[in-house]
Amino acid sequence: MRGELDLAAKLRFARQAVVAQVGGLPSVLRAWLTDGPGRPLFEDREPPDTAVTREVLELARSSYDEPLLGHCLRTWLWAGLFAARDGVKPNEELLYIACLLHDIALTDRFRPVEAGCFAVEGGEIARTTLQSLGAPYADEVASAIAAHMDVRSPRAPVAHLLHAGARLDVAGTRAADLPRQTIREVVAQHPRDGFPHCFATLMRREAAERPNSRAALLWHLGMRLPLNHNPLDRS
């Protein structure tokens, strides 16, 4: 099955996850205790407006429940902030589409029947969708989505930024790297109401139905703790 881990892969992934969680803890604590950098990294951000992005946005709106759609849109905004901070220059259209579709396989509409990894399956859904729309970057988007549940950050620009944005929105990773006022503005634009409960429910389902996936392993390693104590929810 696509994305399933054998025992050796589970052990490697678990070690990486524990190291990453411990390594990222100081940043999360700083975000709780401080306001982060003082200078906003951007003021306004408009999504790229193309025929493909309009089709993908409509697909996202018709497939996600509101908490998960908000997560995808915040992930895109966080990714843009990290691009500015890290000096990464992605293809903006690819980044927007990857963020919109990265959790598409968690929806009832596209949920895979067979065991596997929702991120890998989501990448394949994105690939097929983009190919049907004639987009030339279907493979790159699919790879970025498949890699967003990795513990280590991918190197490719779009994959790196999707990974960073999603981890921030779920676990608060690198929250201290962003200005508190900017975080407030992003959350005000796309509120997090109901997201922690929604995502926890989905991860419990993944752990039960796809026990050999990265999502299942991360859930059993304690994903619920950073999810429920994310500094993004600090008033």
Automatic annotation (TrEMBL):
HD/PDEase domain mapped to chain residues: 64-153
Record-linked SMART domains: HDc
Record Pfam families: HD (PF01966)
CDD domains per UniProt: HDc
Superkingdom of the source species: Bacteria
Transmembrane segments: none
Protein name from the UniProt record: HD domain-containing protein
Organism: Kribbella antiqua
